[in-house]
Amino acid sequence: VVVAVPAPQQQQHQQRRKRRQHISVRANCAVQGIVATLALLLWQVAYTLPRRSELVLAPMAEAGTTPLRALAILGSISLANVFHSVTFFVTL
CA dist 18 to 2, 11, 12, 49, Å? Predict the structure, then answer.
């Protein structure tokens, strides 16, 4: 059985359907950021953490860097990255 839908209602239905198929730019940005963060976290836990002595601690000792100085460097990079991300997100 085919039910005829009046033209205005059909157009409204198609418009609602079209709007539901697309996510907003902000939602897209948020989803991509969350997925990237989870992928990086998984990599850090599964690969880097078990090999931290050879990948992180030994090179730090060779360079004469203390853990506090390394954290300060990483923290400043993180803050710069947050600033960049916030300014990018606000301009969307």
Answer: 22, 10, 10, 45
